[in-house]
Protein: Sugar O-acetyltransferase
Organism: Pelomonas candidula
Amino acid sequence: MSKTEKQKMLAGEYYNAGDAEIQADQASAREWMERYNLTAGLANDQRQDMLRERFGAVGEGAFIRPPFHCDYGYNVKIGRGALMNFGCVILDVVEVEIGDMTQIGPGVQILTADHPRDPALRAQGLEFGRPIRIGKNVWIGGGALIMPGVTVGDDALIGAGAVVTRDVPPGVTVAGNPARALKHRGDERR
């Protein structure tokens, strides 16, 4: 039996984003975002209830300040006490995991969506995704970009505006474009 385009998408394989089922999922996510982005006056527990409607998992005390944007939402897992500030974007064509107590600054983009390097495949409208995993107690500065397939280890720091194209080991501070290691946390001499 052949896979549906959505099954291919979720598996990280080439898929056609114009597929009717995928388009319906995106329309549903847009409707949810319209409602969520009007919740500035709601208590956090009410906002958490809305996140649980859409996300794959939501830890206790997780907090996302609107406006917030995503492709689907159901591929996002956000840990206990995690915070995403204003204007964040998650392109979640495959799984995005955000660990407990992670803090994400305003305007951060977490991008699992990718495109073929072969122009003939791109011309066919094919896309694919690579999962992103962000560990526990990570701090991501405002405007950073986390690119497809990246893993950020526990206790890492990502500088504001960094473009993270490679994995970040636990406890390491990175900054720049492309992001490069600056020093290990606790080693202020480097």
Remarks:
- The longest strand covers residues 180-184.
- The mean pLDDT is 95.
- The chain has one domain: 5-184.
